[in-house]
Amino acid sequence: MAAIGKRGTVTEAAGFNAEEDVQKLREAMKGAGTNEEAITEVLARRTVAQRQRIKEAYKQSVGKDLADDLSSELSGNFRSVVLGLLMLPPVYDAYELKFAMKGAGTEEACLIDILASRTNAEIQTLNGVYKKEYGKTLEDAVCGDTSGMFQRVLVSLLTAGRDESDNVDEAQAVLDAKDIYEAGEARWGTDEVKFLTVLCVRNEKHLLRVFQEYQKISGRDIEDSIKREMSGSLEDVFLAIVKCIKNKPAFFAERLYKSMKGLGTTDSVLIRIMVARAEVDMLDIKAQFLKMYGKTLHSFIKGDTSGDYRKILLVLCGGE
Questions:
Q1: Which family does it belong to (predicted)?
Q2: Of 135, 179, 175, 143, residue with least CA distance to 159
Q3: Kindly report the CA angle at 272 between 159 and 206, in degrees rounded to 5?
Q4: pLDDT tens digits for 77-109?
Q5: Can you tell me the distance from the alpha carbon of 8 to that of 282, in angstroms, rounded to the nearest whole number?
Q6: What's the predicted TM-score (pTM) here?
Q7: DSSP percent split of the chain into helix, strand, coil, nearest 5
Q8: What pLDDT, in 10s, does the model give residues 185-226?
Q9: Residue 277: CA atoms inside 13 Å, Cβ hemisphere, count?
C-alpha cells in the first residue's frame, strides 16, 4: 500500500479504510449535485495502491465501476484529474498516449514528456499495458502517427534498452562527445543518427560525462547545440532526453512553468504531470520550481486555475 516513490507529496493515508472511503464517495454523489470537495479529500489524499482498494470496495458494494460513476457525475478539468488518479501509472500513461494520437494531429508534447522521462521498467510495463488496453503495440501506434527521425527516436526509447548501469567508460565518453560534435556543429547538415545512438543508449552517469566532454570540445552546452542544429519535435525530444538525464525534477518543473506562464493554461500538460508525479518526485519538482523561477509551484497553480480543479491540484501539490 506504500507510495510509489519516496519523494512524493501524496503519501499513504493513516488509518485507511476502503469501505469508509466508499461511503464518503457515495454520499458525495447522492442526490442532485455532487460534492466535489469530498471527492477531492478522499482521492487526492490516498496513494495509487489505496485508490485501487477503494475501486475494488466500490465495485463490491455498489456493483458498478467507480470511474464510470465519477465520469458521469463530473466534468471538465476536475474530472480529468480524478479519472487520472484512479488509474494505475502505466494505465494512465497508456491512456494519455492513446489520447495524444487520436484523430487529426498528434500532441507530440505528450509522447515526448512520457517516453523521454520513464525508466526502462516503466516503459516495458507501459508497452504491455498499451497492447492489452488498445489491441495494438505502442510502437505500431507511434509509427502510424509520427515520421522521420522523430519517429526513430521514439521507437528507440520504446525498446527500453538504455544501459542502466553506473559504468563510465572515459575513453568512450570522449569518443561519444567527439562523434556528436562531428555529427553536428562541425559539419554542414546534421547526422541525427549519431545523436540518437548516444542519447538513447548510454547510461545516465556516462552521458553526464559525455556532456562535460562535449562542452570542452565545442565550447557549448549540448542543449545549445541541439537548439542550433535541429528544429521541431526532433529538437524537443532530444532536449527532453538531455534534460531528464541532467535533472528530471527540473525537466518537469520547466514543463509545469511553461504550461502556466503567459496567456492561457495548457491544462493537458499541467494535469498529466501533477497526476503522474504526485507520488513519485513532486517534492523535488517543487524545490526545483522555486529555485528556477523564484516562485512556488503552489502560488503558480493558485493564480492560474480556479474552482474544484484548483483545489484538487493544490492538494496534489502539497503545501507552499
A1: Belongs to the annexin family.
A2: 143
A3: 40
A4: 999 999 999 999 999 999 999 999 986 667 899
A5: 5
A6: 0.94
A7: 70, 0, 30
A8: 777 667 889 999 999 999 999 999 999 999 999 999 999 999
A9: 27
